[in-house]
Amino acid sequence: MFQTFKTLFAGVSVQEEKRVRDIYALDLIDQKIAETEAGLNAAKGSLAALIQRHRAEEKQTKALEKRIADLMERAKAALDKKLTDLATETAGAVADMENELVRRRETVARLDQKITTLRLRVEKAQRRLVDLRQGAISAKAIRAEQNATRRVASALPNAPAKEAQDLIDSILGTEHEEPLADIYEELDDDLNNRTLEDRLGASGCGDPTKTTAADVLAKLKS
Prior knowledge:
By secondary structure, the chain is mostly helical. Helix content is 88%, strand content 0%.
């Protein structure tokens, strides 16, 4: 599966690669966790094999130590009975066994060190795998929330709502405006009334409504 992703990434741009990675991020996370778990299982298998060998070497070492102790007792008895040849032969066998015992003890110590080192690495990998699994759960929950948010946003388009609000505002904004025809009629009546008053004032009926050139000349002569 991961090889398929690598082939897909090879033919796209960096931006497109990022987009594709975002789309398949959860699948990639699961794939990497699976690879981590496979590596951890392999390490556990190696550790188990080392522990098995370590136990076998310890068993052989203890058996060898027990046999050496037994032969030493028998060789001592042979010497006590003046069985020098038999005691000498036993001593040679014990010497070989003691040399083997040294090698086996070295092997046990070496295996013990390797087991300790590998066990620490396996424990660390195990904790990391647990963290990865918990992280994957969080990532999936966040991705689900993101998808839900996008679905809600797409289900509530902004443009129609804005258009509706604009129409409402346009209607409410003209609610108290006076019709243009009424204003025109009012203006026409006002102009007509003022014309009538002008004519009456000029005929000496009441005070004039306008200053005339004669009025200005009279002021100059006074």
